[in-house]
Design goal:
Layout lengths: L5 E4 L6 E9 L5 E9 L4 H7 L2 H6 L1 H12 E4 L2 E2 L1 H6 L9 H4 L3 H16 L2 E8 L10 E7 L4 E4 L6 E10 L2 E2 L2 E2 L4 E7 L3 H6 L10 H11 E5 L8 H7 L2 H4 L3 H12 L4 E2 L1 E5 L6 E5 L9
Antiparallel strand pairs: 1-8, 2-3, 3-4, 4-5, 6-7, 8-14, 9-12, 10-11, 12-13, 15-16
Helix pairs in contact: 3-6
Length: about 290
């Protein structure tokens, strides 16, 4: 599947998810919801749920908390009102939030911030990393979130087929499986998968966490000619399944998952000292004032 995107400035599309939410109709057909509405929240509202230590160690649950507060609804599905009914329980989030793709959740954070606090983040500090710029002086500048670009696509990213280069072989008590498995069929990981596996999350080492999240989403593994690896054995192997991938196969899998429509947080700034471009990424740490 090729990735064909239309790019739009965030300021021009503040209420439309990049990928959209798949919802089943009563006749079991699938409809795609992209409309999203936001609340206008205050600094005091944010303070009620802010917890820096929790956010660092449980980033996916933290995203769910923030979105439960700032999103009013997705399509006709209520979000904030359900969160309010819980008494803003820190362990609760409306189910619809858990079904958002990482790209849509990320988009909603930036769009939600703009709806309540505007697009300008003042006095952002960063440094120029260009070789010719020495010493690396601190630069202070304002950032306009509205200029961030958002990818949109009409392709189906919820079902992913990953074709490996080297493939996977398996062994069991009965000996080595002679088949070489090169096709992974999986669904797109969503926010709820990250929350479910968050006890494995480590800020400086995401390897084990990512493997567990991806494993939850794998539907089948097969050879190029369609021979399926037994489904029951997949769960028995566990996260070690993905450690069997070669480096380039791991990159293929990650590129496929990370290639979904989302918001690009990259900004290009001109260094006032060396007059060269600086690539700067606007972290979510700048969102929702403390």
């Amino acid at each position: 599947m090729s990735s064909v995107y239309t790019q739009v400035k965030l300021a021009d599309n503040l209420n439309r998810l990049p990928l959209g939410l798949q919802v089943k109709n009563s006749d079991k057909s699938i409809k795609l919801i992209r409309d999203i509405e936001f609340n206008r929240v205050s600094r005091e509202d944010i303070k009620k749920i802010r917890d820096e230590i929790f956010a660092k160690n449980h980033p996916y649950m933290w995203i769910a908390r923030i979105l439960s507060l700032v999103v009013s609804s997705i399509g006709d599905i209520p979000v904030y009102s359900e969160y309010a009914k819980s008494g803003f329980d820190p362990t609760f989030y409306p189910e619809v939030i858990s079904h958002l793709s990482p790209g849509d959740a990320n988009y909603a954070l930036y769009a939600g911030h703009i709806h309540s606090f505007g697009p300008i983040i003042k006095d952002v500090k960063f440094r120029c990393n260009n070789i010719i710029c020495n010493p690396k002086r601190e630069i202070v500048d304002d950032i306009n979130l509205g200029d961030l670009m958002v990818d949109y696509s009409e392709e189906d990213y919820y079902t992913l087929t990953v074709e490996l280069i080297d493939g996977i072989t398996f062994e069991s008590s009965e000996g080595k499986d002679p088949n070489l498995y090169k096709i992974i069929n999986m669904r797109l990981p969503v926010l709820g998968d990250g929350i479910a596996e968050e006890k494995w999350y480590q800020p400086n080492n995401q390897g084990t966490f990512d493997e567990r999240v991806y494993l939850r989403c794998i539907d089948s593994i097969s050879t190029l000619d369609g021979k399926m690896f037994p489904k029951e054995r997949l769960s028995n192997i566990g996260p070690s399944l993905l450690t069997k991938l070669t480096g380039r196969d791991s990159s293929i899998l990650e590129d496929k998952i990370n290639g979904i429509p989302t918001i690009s947080t990259k900004k290009i700034k001109l260094c006032p000292y060396c007059s060269e471009d600086i690539n700067f990424f606007v972290s979510t740490a700048y969102l929702f004032p403390r």
